[in-house]
Amino acid sequence: MNYWLVKSEPGSYSWDDLKQKNEEVWDGVRNYQARNFLKEMKLKDPVLFYHSGKDKAIVGIAEVTQEAFPDPKDQDAKDWVAVKIRSERDLKVPVTLDKIKQEDSLSEMLLLKQSRLSVMSVAKEDFETILKLSES
Length: 136
Hints:
Layout: E1 3-8, H1 15-21, E2 23-26, H2 32-40, E3 46-51, E4 57-70, E5 81-96, H3 97-102, H4 110-113, E6 119-122, H5 124-133
Parallel strand pairs: 1-3
Antiparallel strand pairs: 1-6, 2-5, 3-4, 4-5
């Protein structure tokens, strides 16, 4: 099992939007590294949902429900892919970017190292730390 984080601007697509639909195609990714992460996602892998922009916080947990398939928005057939994710649960308390930065054990997260990526892998230990932080 692998662990992931997807980012979205809440004004464009929020955690509440995903919860309302329950399941959604995660498409429109146009960065090669992020695309490669999408290709690595497997059925039932957990996904942290991060609000970018003003909020800057992990707010929920989703799950991969369909592995990579051709992105329906890819008009040029350039090998872009999408996955499907389903909302699983809200975090008890959102884990803000500031809180993540303050946690020494999370200093190597791609969220901090490559902040522009919209899809990224998360180490199992970091995922578990995020869940603990969401309890306080």
